[in-house]
Amino acid sequence: MRAQQRVLAAIEKDFKAAGLPPLGWYDVLWELVKAEAGRLRPFEIEARTLLAQYNLSRLIDRLEKEGLVRREAYGEDARGCWVTVTEAGRAMRARMWETYSRSIEKHVGAKLSDPDARKLATLLSRLV
User: Fold this and answer.
1) How many Å apart are CA 105 and CA 49, to the nearest integer?
2) Number of domains into which the chain is organized
3) Could you give the count of Cα atoms lying within 13 Å of 90 in the half-sphere of its Cβ?
4) Which of 3, 15, 21 is nearest to 102 (CA)?
5) Domain with 119 in it: what CATH number?
6) What b/e string do you get for 44-80 counting C-beta neighbours within 10 Å, with b at 16 or more?
7) Distance between CA atoms of 93 and 42, rounded to whole angstroms?
8) What are the start-end ranges of the E strands in the chain?
9) pLDDT in tens, the chain (128 residues)
10) Distance between CA atoms of 50 and 116, rounded to whole angstroms?
């Protein structure tokens, strides 16, 4: 847990230094980019990320305000909605990935040999 906290804090610091939003934004945008038609229901985003529902609602509000996602009605259910990634959201995710990938290499990859990285990935995959 301590290692995870330190790595995530270092990544957040790299994002901030690059003038980018927090890692949570990347996580939501990535899930939307991967999704069919670039859209998911909020509960689907919650299930695919580590974000709690109350945090996710506020985050979606911020992403929408920045023009990175838009909410769309979900069929006949007036209470439900789709969250759809916009082209600006796709561009932001790609921009964030440039920093994120370098940050992962710096804070994780550079500290592990290739065999150790494979071993760690194998061990962690058992927990998922």
Assistant:
1) 22
2) 1
3) 10
4) 15
5) 1.10.10.10
6) ebbebbebeeeebeebbeebeeeebbeeeeeeeeeee
7) 18
8) 39-40, 69-74, 77-85
9) 999 999 999 999 999 999 999 999 999 999 999 999 999 999 999 999 988 888 999 999 999 999 999 999 887 766 789 999 999 999 999 999 999 999 999 999 999 999 999 999 999 999 98
10) 26
Residues facing residue 71 across a β-bridge: 83
- Entry pTM: 0.89
**Alpha carbon distance 89, 42 (integer Å):** 16
Residue 105 CB contacts under 8 Å (≥ 6 apart), including other chains: none
Q: Using an 8 Å Cβ cutoff, are 24 and 51 in contact?
A: yes
- Distance in angstroms (rounded) separating the CA atoms of residues 114 and 74: 45
Give the closest residue to 26 by CA, choosing from 94, 81, 109. 94
CA–CA separation, 89 vs 28, rounded Å? 10
Q: Which domain holds residue 105?
A: 2-127
What is the amino acid identity at position 117?
A
